[in-house]
Structure formats: structure tokens, C-alpha cells
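Hi Q.,

Before the meeting this afternoon, I wanted you to have the DCS prediction in hand. No need to reply - just skim if you have a minute. The sequence and ligand are here:
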Amino acid sequence: MSLKALDYDSLNENVKNCQYAVRGELYLRASELQKEGKKIIFTNVGNPHALGQKPLTFPRQVVALCQAPFLLDDPNVGMIFPADAIARAKHYLSLTSGGLGAYSDSRGLPGVRKEVAQFIQRRDGYPSDPELIFLTDGASKGVMQILNCVIRGQKDGILVPVPQYPLYSATISLLGGTLVPYYLEESENWGLDVNNLRQSVAQARSQGITVRAMVIINPGNPTGQCLSEANLREILRFCCNERLVLLGDEVYQQNIYQDERPFISSKKVLMDMGAPISKEVQLISFHTVSKGYWGECGQRGGYFEMTNIPPRTVEEIYKVASIALSPNVSAQIFMGLMVSPPKPGDISYAQFVRESKGILESLRRRARMMTDGFNSCKNVVCNFTEGAMYSFPQIKLPPKAIQAAKQAGKVPDVFYCLKLLEATGISTVPGSGFGQKEGVFHLRTTILPAEEEMPEIMDSFKKFNDDFMSQYGVGYSRM
Ligand code: DCS
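Predicted structure with the ligand bound:
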């Protein structure tokens, strides 16, 4: 009997080959344990509100009013909502054609795209054109749309950092392209060495792969490093010479926990380099409302900005975006608010600053607590989380533990993370889900648990780890 299209054996192989560890085996087991009544600390996903982060007040007030515009006609509205929130809600509603229940243009509301362009211009000091900004349902959708335009088939390669956030590996698999890895140097604070890039490209080419684009994640996920300006310049020069499109994933640009290397956008560095390179390199930059001190993951708001992309290509990307009709309109308003928050003198300014600073300062302290906690554990070493939302310690698994994992039919880091989960309820993602060098093991955890819970979590991690290491002997597996 012939198979039907959605019988498992007849599914698109690209779908079956695609792996997404952030919601993989560990997550599924954690969900099961939770159903059985065990307390689980979900540190597998960078989902701040799920771990208790409170939403910023002002943007929620504005969007609440946009969702329920009849409140604006209530004579008591001013008793619940500050005047600047009311004014902003009216402003955003005036940018829509029928409120939040109406589709917008598939590139997003022109008025919000203009606000995004103004934000980029303020941030970078260079003009930004709203026509080259598309609003998306989270950064993920934008990344998928762009990779879809780039990848023509199996012979097309995309340079992706290893370790990487698996949106990239998964989407490249889904689209039937080839991932070309370049390794970040753990011993250099997860720095990016352009010589590694050259080697990766040469090797891919020798296998008949056409390398078409390069992904950078800055600040890094899962690795947490912030790229220096000099490094970004090298990368842009490399992309120019190799004729690669640069996909700059900058979703963690607000999440910076050190002062030596503040965030600097790829667009600014490119423009600073001047002609001819500033007119040559094709760059797509991504941003989101899911991260930073906003953490509004569930709203699904994002944008991408295109630099040096020919108008006919922009038209094609517009067409692709149009198939999905319209990004979420409420999320577009969150994006508008993120790029134009309350200003000094506004009624809500002080509260907004207090809330956002409070979150960022606490994240900075948590980044430090986690790194120090991991580094106090037996056979664990961890680079400081300079930015983003994750800690990515290396776990030096003793040979006996590797043996035990093999016997259990598990990848060694999956084995370790499962044991950690069962013992402590801490739900992490094994390093193999992000890619790592052969024979080296990691785990990723977010730095998002509530600050007051952090000492207890790190104590319980340390106890588990040190017992585990004693149980399996103290040998080192690192080659
Ligand atoms: N890019 C990077 C580097 C990310 O880490 C994420 C989300 C995204 C893009 C997509 O975000 P949005 O689609 O929500 O805008 N990070 C995932 C992670 O590693 N944990 O949680 C989600």
C-alpha cells in the first residue's frame, strides 16, 4: 500500500533531519517530571517572564489600551492610565487601519517602521530607511524568511558559529541547505578568529559547497561573548572579500554585563568603514522584543533591517512576507515602544527607567553569580557571561561517566544533564544541542532564575556535580 504524504515514513526528510535541542529530550523529560509533581526550574529557554520577570508597566498600559480602545472613551480612564500611555495608545491606533484586529501591511505598519528607523539612526549615527525595515513575528520569522531567500539547495552553505543557537542549524536543515561551521575559541573567551573562518570556507569549497552567507550572534547565544569593534571590522572585511551576506543576529543588544565592550552594531561598524566596503557588504540585522529588559517573548515582535540589498530583492522579500499576510499587530506596537520608550520629562519616564535598570542590574549580578558558582565546581570551567542570557560551562566528564553514558545509550552531556534534572529539577540544554568540539562537553543554562533563588540553585548544582564527579572518578576527558 502506498504511503500517504503525512505518514511518518513519507515525510519531507528535511523535517525529520531538523533538530532543535532547546525544546528537545531534556525539555520533554522536564515537562514529564513537572506533571508528576516535581518542582522544575526551566532554565532551558531564554524566556524571562516564565521565570518571574515582571513586564515593564508602560508598554503594557499602552498595548492594553490599544487592545481595548473603548477604555479610551471611559471618563475614568485617566484614573487608571497615565496621560502619556493614553496619548501613545491613541498614536499607535492612529497608525493602524482598523486597530489591532486588522492585518497590517506585510512589512509592518509604516509608522512603526519609521520609529525603528529613527532608533537605528540614533543608535548608530547613520541614516536608516524605513522602506528597508520589515517587522516580523519575533526575530525567528525574519531569520527564516531571509535564509529561505538565500538557500537554493544542498550545495549552498551558510557559515554558522559553533556553538550556535539552533534556530540556524534547524532552519538550514529545513530548507535543505548546508551548515558550514566555524568554531569559536573557548580559551579566548569564545572569540572569533578570522583564520578559522578562512579554513571553514576553504574546506566547504573543496567539497563543492558555495558559501553564501555568514551568521554572527552578537552578543552570543549560548556563549555570551560580546564582539569587539576590531573583530566586527575583520568579519565585515572577510564578508566583503568572500562576497558573503552577513546575517547579524543582534537580539541581545540590551543584555550587556561588562563595560569594556559595549554593544556596537554591525551596521555602525560597516558604515564607519566607509566606501567602498560600506556600499558593498550585504547585511541583514535582526532584533526582537523577546530579549533585553523587555523579555516579551510571548508577544512575538521583531524586525530586520536590510543594508545594501538591491530593490528588486527587497521586492521579492516583501512578496515572501506577504504570503503570511501580516506580522502580529500588537507585537508591532511593542516594537514601536521598545524603540521609542518614555523620554525624560514624560510622566512614565522615572518608572520606566527604574524598572528597566532594575532588571538589567539584576541580570548583571546573576551573570556573575552563575559564572562564579560554576567555576567553584569540580571539573567545571566557565567563561564569564559578557552579554545575552546564558551561561555555558564546560563539564569535564571523567572517562567512567562517558562509559556509563554509552552504556545508557546517551550522548555524554545528555546523560549528565538528565541526571542533573532528576536530582535537582534544573532543566538545562546539553552542549551537543548547540554544537561543540569533539570530546568536549558543556551545558547551557539561562541566567534568568530569580536573583533570590540563585544561591540555592547554584548550591544544588554544586552538590549534584561534585557528587557526580566523585561517583565517576576524577579523571579528565578533555583532549
Ligand atoms: N536569535 C537568537 C540568538 C536567539 O537566542 C533567539 C531566541 C532568537 C533569535 C529568536 O527570538 P524571537 O523569535 O523570540 O525574537 N532564543 C531562544 C533561546 O535560546 N532560548 O529561548 C529562545
